[in-house]
Amino acid sequence: MSMNRLRIQMTSKCRRSKNVVIFLVCLATLYGILAPSAPTNSHAATQSNYADRVPSLNLNSRPLFVLGMLTPHTHTDYRDTQRSTWLSTIQQLKPELPFEIEYKFLIDRPTHDTVLENKKYNDIVFLNATSEGRGVKFGEKLYLWFKYIHEHFPDALLGAKVDDDTFLCVPQIFKRLDELKSTTLYYGWTHGKGKRVTMDTRMDEMFVVLGKDLVERIAKRKYCTGKKCDAKTDLIDTNFGGTSLGSWLSIYDDIDFQPDNKRIVHMGRGQEAALLQNIKPGFCSKYVLNHKSSVDAMKKLHGHNKHVLSSSGGFVGAVTGSLFSGDVVRALPQQSLTNRHTYLAALDKMSAYDNWAVVTTIFSPAKAVKEIASQSNWCLVIVADAKTPPEDKYLSEMGINETSSNRVKYLSVKEQSILYPLLSDIIPINHFGRKNIGYMYAIHHKAKYIWDFDDDNIGTVDLNDFKTDASFSYVTVCKGTQHVLLNPYPYFGVKETYTWPRGFPLEDIKNKKTLPKLCNSRDSFSLGIVQSLANQQPDIDAVYRMTRDAPFDFLATRKSHTPFVLPRNTYAPFNAQATLWLAPAFPYMALPISVNGRVSDIWRGYVAQHFLHRKDVRLAFSPPYVTQERNAHNSLRDFNAELDLYQKSKQLVGFLSSTQADYPADISEMYKSLYTRKYLEQLDIQFAEAWTMTLASINQ
Questions:
Q1: Residue 76: CB partners within 8 Å, gap ≥ 6?
Q2: What is the greatest pairwise CA distance in the chain?
Q3: Model confidence over 200-216: pLDDT tens digits?
Q4: Which residues contact 2 (CB under 8 A, 6 or more apart)?
Q5: CB atoms within 10 A of CB 191
Q6: pLDDT of residue 410 exceeding 80
Q7: Residue 111: Cβ within 10 Å count
Q8: How far apart are CA 378 and CA 355, in angstroms?
Q9: I need a labelling partner for 254 at 20 to 30 A (CA). Which of 224, 246, 248, 461 fits?
Q10: Residue where one domain finishes, among candidates 309, 328, 360
Q11: What is the DSSP string of 62-82?
Q12: Displacement of CA 560 from its chain's centroid (Å)
């Protein structure tokens, strides 16, 4: 049937525009390099000859963990052994570990040999601390290291210090810390009893882990070595690192105190015989680290630590596997979002419009962007970031003229922070999530329709096909054949029956119940979202691309196929590449920012459907309006980026369609629930709060 039968008059067009909103966002970022600094006598830790990388939050959607190994300059053999044992395992398993891990050896001051060593390995930080004094100034060195983490790795979720005679079981130690991670974490082997941190009840300094908030608190306090020190405000050194840290943290009552003595082997001098009894196969199946390890002991433990990383993220034996449960496995973090701004949203001089298109890109203007800009009934927001060509150059390359300039807005990073300060604070620079600020800008400027697209998808929907003031023809699931999960692709004509969209649970690819019988309908309904399929490079996952033929076109056309409207309480994945959002769905446009970009839009889509079902607002899939000329991709990299989709999609739909998901009142509450189930990380709790607060400010 002709798509003209779907027609609903459009009563509004893009009126006048003034400026250009370009929201460009980098999908992934490599970090900037700091200039090397020479050793000094100050308390500023330095790294000779080689630069440190300052990480942006959330690379590959994993929190950052920064680890320092305290070592005398003479312990070359210990450093080399750690590099060749458990540190090499970190490198080997880097893509699969639950953290992005940065590590440095911590040495008092540079010597000729250690400078040469650092030129070779680029993994030493010189603390510029004296090695003289009782306890070898361990308290001072601990302070300098945590200050270094705060200054050079400000987005690190966890910071840790370990002795160079300690063997860490990798990946077991990081699996354990992933279960316990929080911004106020205090983890290690504890002395004393109770939960109240004091000089006597504290973690041993041989291995201690602090959450981001505690690292920041220590870094911002004054380190006092004189006689006039205030224990409530200053950091007073007790020489030994553990007692110093216990004293410094004793003033806080919100510490997430997590002793792990049963999993940590910590023995003192004179216990070598007992220690040797632990050096045997299976050690790392019971424990996470061994202190007082000799060079030979570390090598033996490394040989014994035979590990296999399961595909679902659990560390298991060689012939077993595990499944992601989706159950509640962790508590909510104690700290919530802090808003220091006097306003959350400010309008610029651009006028209000009905129809907005939002895009992010790190490239010069693509054909898709130019095409949208040329259409008189669309206003365009391009979200810029640090890597985006400057505004003048970008707009010049777009060929913007006096007429089209009224419909295009280039939104610089600076403007983003001025117009939406809280959102801008939460979303990292060089991050696909900056697109959220583009959505907010369009909503703020009275959008009724938002075309959410990628710069490699050429084309737009015809709004006349999706007006909601008249009935139109569509297909939907026939009564009595409904299944919670629906696969929309086969209806639109595919050569292979089992063709599925990215984000569709792999377990259900061959489930015939997801391919229900469809019936024609003209019944009225409330429309919230329209996903346009794409020809040439449809939205399929890496598993499909590596095992089946792609690219391909759908057989369906706008003349041959009416849209497919999903019934209430059914789910299908949809993307952020070519999607029309109508006003009832705007509150649910938020793209999660703590997961990979290839997961974020799918999670967003499933969550949005949950809330739209509550309002009886529908999702529709349409024949292709766009052709995707896909930017360069590596299928194996995409596969790694999509692991959450393969492992968690079915469980997520199960949760969202259950009564357990009934209580979250809004996106903010839902994201908290998803955090406790390990679909999202802590950053998204803060982001969701910023999103809902900013949206509320706009709607006042």
A1: 113, 117
A2: 87
A3: 888 898 999 999 999 99
A4: 558, 559
A5: 18
A6: yes
A7: 13
A8: 5
A9: 224
A10: 309
A11: --EEEEEEE--TT-HHHHHHH
A12: 40
Across the chain, what does the average pLDDT equal?
A: 85
503-532 in b/e burial notation, b at 16+ Cβ within 10 A? bbbeebeeeeebbbebeebeeebebbbbbb
H or E stretch at 104? strand 100-107
| Residue 168 amino acid letter | L
Does 498 reside within a domain?
yes
Predicted model pTM: 0.59
Which of 77, 269, 275, 37 has the alpha carbon at shortest distance from 164?
77
Condensed to tens digits (0 to 9), the pLDDT of residues 247-275 reads 888 889 999 999 999 999 987 656 555 66
Helix (H) or strand (E) holding 620: strand 617-628
* DSSP three-state, residue 134: helix
Give me the phi and psi of 66, to 5 degrees please.
-115, 125
b/e per residue 330-349 (b: at least 16 CB within 10 A) = eeebebeeeeeeeebbeebe
Residue 308 has pLDDT above 70, yes or no: no
Q: Name residue 698's amino acid.
A: I
Residue range of the domain that includes 514: 457-667
Residue in the block written with tokens 């830790």: 45
Ranges of H-type helices in 287-434: 295-304, 367-374, 391-398, 413-419, 421-426
Q: What is the DSSP letter of 46?
A: B
Whether the bond between 551 and the residue before it is cis, its omega within 30 degrees of 0, is yes
Check: CB of residue 484 under 8 Å from CB of residue 571.
yes
Residue 700 within any structural domain of the chain? no
Residues facing residue 582 across a β-bridge: 449
Domains held by the chain: number: 2
pLDDT at res. 47: 38
Percent of the chain, pLDDT > 90? 60
pLDDT band, very low/low/confident/very high, at 39 (cuts 50, 70, 90): very low
Helix or strand or coil: residue 475? Answer: strand
CA distance 56 to 52: 13
Q: Which helix (H) or strand (E) holds 212?
A: helix 212-220
Report the alpha-carbon distance of residue 582 to residue 463 in Å, rounded: 11
Task: Tell me if residue 533 falls in helix, strand or coil.
Answer: strand
| Angle between helical axes of 682-699 and 435-444 (0-180°, round to 10) | 10
Element (H, E) at 235: strand 234-236
Spatial distance between the Cα atoms of 516 and 479, rounded to a whole number of angstroms: 10
- Residue 43 tokens read as 């308390």
Q: Which two tokens stand for residue 169?
A: 């079981």
Q: Please name the helix (run of DSSP H) or strand (run of DSSP E) that holds residue 116, with its range, or none.
A: helix 112-121
Task: Identify the pLDDT of residue 96.
Answer: 80
Amino acid identity, residue 236? Answer: I
The three-state DSSP-derived secondary structure of 641-653 is: HCHHHHHHHHHHH
The answer to whether 605 touches 573, Cβ cutoff 8 Å, is: yes
What residues are paired with 32 via a beta bridge? 54
Indicate the residue among 266, 294, 309 that finishes a domain.
309
Residue-wise DSSP of 324-341: ---S--SPPPS-------
- Burial (CB count within 10 angstroms: exposed 0-12, middle 13-18, buried 19+), residue 395: buried
- Tell me: cis bond preceding 171? Omega within 30 of 0 counts: yes
Residue 330 lies in a domain: no
The CATH number of the domain holding residue 213 is: 3.90.550.50
pLDDT at 444: 98
3-class DSSP string for 283-304 = HHHHCCEECCCCHHHHHHHHHH
> How far is the C-alpha of 620 from the C-alpha of 474, rounded, in Å?
9
